[in-house]
Specification:
mainly alpha
Length: 508
């Protein structure tokens, strides 16, 4: 499949041609559109509900094919103006299915893009655009084509068709509002095979102007994480640490950054700083975080420092929190449940799952997008129910049916995805519990070895002196942690550790 790019001059021409105007272009067209006049007048006056009703009657009963086509498009656009996005989606979609023979085909493609943007839909509408994509898309207005190329590139990336994704994403120019998102995804497609090139591209994204691109603040935070992860993958642990620290405190991704920073600090030889990041992650403020691996990392750090009681304490912490949690996940997965049941676990949670699991599910952008879409359909259904003026023409019943059908489809999609995520979460907990068992086995083995050698590890460790963590510069204050989590201190903890590993050399 080939993506298309267009010269500016032609784009300007097409943009002018595609400008939304209901006024007829010539007197001949005006004569042909007499049947459209009531809807046109209402539309131009901003009475979109009235306009939609008039256009719908023409779609159903109009005698002139050109009038019907125009009514179809402006019916969809009236829905969009009213923020009835499901009606807009359906009628734009019907036009797109008819292909370029429909006189409003290219405008309808742009309408679908606008609906996808309004609904933050990264799955359903992009899939329709992907199926429709062909050589005729070269005739789209440049702004629309750029967005379509991004949406199709995003789908290709998710399907792991990286070469195809790169082709589409590279076709999004710098002047497009989707450029930052496209470059971020392009960078992700390079990480596995060309990590240095990926980091270079990510840093270019970080340098883009802040107010020029769609969803840029979110893209910027994701890019920070992407750089940190790529540096970590290349073994550049201190660089990874620096980028993890750049993720804004209490942002949507800060808990993930704290956990991953723990691994980076540990790999960089900074066990105390690693434990400090995990201490922040285990603060009450993050009680709803799903981070089973953080406890395994904590146990691993203690084990490598031969602090065996603390190792067992971390393993017990993992099991105290996550094994009961897994039991509830398994209970939700047991039995004959349809997809509607799983969709309601996030749409209308009633305590079936722990908060951390619900947050884990909603932490997935696709699940969150499905949830928001379902809530949007509820809002639109209520709005349609209030439009009694649409009852006589049948428009009220049709749009209500469209919404209900889409809600059922979305429930199935959401439920299927949620069920899959729950199975994965349970598998993750089981996997880390197996790792915990190995750590416990090695811990008991090491403790037994010390006892057999007659080494009093507790007395030896008590004789070691702990030194205060180094203060970065004179502008910082040092406060000893006394079991209370203060909001302005979270994220700045650092442990100082004793080391029991030298004890294992005694008696040899």
């Amino acid at each position: 499949m080939r993506s298309f790019v267009r010269e500016t001059s032609r784009a300007a021409l097409l943009a002018a041609v595609s400008a939304l105007a209901l006024a007829p272009a010539c007197r001949q067209a005006a004569a042909q559109e007499e049947e459209l006049s009531p809807g046109v007048v209402a539309y131009n006056a901003g009475r979109y509900a009235e306009a939609a009703d008039d256009f719908y009657r023409i779609v159903q009963n109009g005698q002139d094919e050109m009038d019907r086509q125009k009514a179809e498009y402006y019916l969809a656009h009236s829905f969009f103006k009213m923020k009835l996005y499901q009606g807009a989606f359906q009628y734009y979609g019907l036009i797109v299915k008819q292909g370029p023979r429909h006189r409003y085909y290219f405008r309808a493609v742009g309408g679908l893009v606008n609906v996808a943007e309004a609904l933050h839909d990264g799955t359903i509408i992009p899939s329709i655009l992907n199926r429709a994509y062909g050589s005729d898309f070269e005739r789209l207005p440049e702004k629309t084509l750029n967005k379509v190329n991004f949406l199709v590139g995003m789908l290709s990336y998710r399907a792991n068709k990286l070469d195809e994704a790169q082709e589409f994403l590279s076709a999004v120019p710098k002047k497009s509002s989707y450029y930052a998102r496209a470059r971020y995804l392009y960078g992700l497609s390079l990480v596995k095979k060309e990590p240095k090139a990926a980091v270079k591209l990510f840093k270019e994204v970080m340098a883009l102007p802040e107010n020029q691109y769609y969803d840029y603040s979110n893209v910027r935070e994701l890019t920070r994480l992407a750089i940190a992860r790529t540096e970590y993958g290349m073994g550049q642990y201190q660089e990874a640490v620096d980028w993890y620290h750049s993720v804004p405190r209490f942002s949507s991704y800060w808990d993930q950054a704290l956990f991953e920073d723990g691994w980076a600090e540990f790999q960089a030889g900074e066990a105390g700083k690693a434990l400090g990041s995990l201490e922040a992650l285990h603060a009450p403020q993050f009680e709803g975080a799903f981070a089973p691996e953080s406890w395994i990392l904590k146990a691993t750090i203690y084990f490598f420092n031969c602090l065996y009681p603390e190792t067992k304490g971390a393993v017990n912490g993992f099991r105290r929190i996550y094994l009961p949690m897994n039991q509830k996940i398994q209970a939700a997965l047991t039995g004959e449940h349809d997809y509607d049941y799983y969709a309601k676990l996030i749409a209308q949670p009633k305590g079936e799952l722990p908060l951390a699991v619900v947050n884990y599910l909603l932490g997935n952008q696709r699940v969150l997008g499905f949830k928001d879409y379902i809530e949007e359909l509820v809002r639109e259904r209520a709005m349609v129910d209030s439009l009694s003026s649409w009852r006589e023409s049948g428009l009220q019943a049709e749009v209500a049916q469209l919404i209900d059908t889409q809600a059922q489809t979305l429930d199935r999609l959401t439920g299927k995805f949620v069920e899959g995520r729950l199975k994965y979460a349970s598998k993750v907990i089981d996997g880390f519990d197996s790792q915990a068992e190995i750590i416990l086995f090695e811990t008991v083995k090491a403790e037994k070895e010390l006892i057999e050698r007659g080494v009093d590890s507790s007395a030896k460790l008590a004789g070691q002196q702990l030194y205060r963590a180094k203060v970065p510069d004179p502008n910082w204050d040092y406060w000893a942690f006394e079991g209370e989590f203060w909001i302005d201190e979270i994220g700045y903890y650092e442990y100082t550790l004793k080391n029991g590993c030298a004890l294992r050399q005694e008696g040899r």
